[in-house]
Design a protein that fits this description.
4 helices; single chain; about 35% helix; 6-stranded mixed sheet; alpha/beta
Length: about 160
Amino acid sequence: MVIISKYKLESKKDKAIFKVRSYEERRCPICGGSLSVIGSRLRHLITESGDPIVLSIRKLSCDKCGKIHSELPDAIFPYHRLCSLTIKSIVAGDKDNAVCDEASYRRIRLWWAIFSKRSGALSIEDTYEKINDGVITYADFRKFFVLYNDTINDLKGG
């Protein structure tokens, strides 16, 4: 995955889907090769105001190593439907600005406690930087989710 911060959202007149258009020249976080667009996929997101939107995210292929990456705008935190501003509010313990239910709030607080300890990430921004620098990879996220699910199952007693 590649996190971008310079982009615009283009809406189609007849659809409720926003295309993400990047203004950045991105390199492969694994090998540094150039990236080519190979397609797109839809990604559902809940904004900081609680409104659901659908984004069209570009899929990129590295011309050098062949790895495939999703180009995620920094409004999205990987593997979460809530926008990054909501995740930041939850991580900071700010319930008033977190547009989610109590169970999601507690689950994300636990997720962050485990994730930040294992990854060494100090903040959401630090996590984005580590992803773009290749320090945190897709495989790391997958390992984390296995660990997270095991932790939740242990807490439930199962």
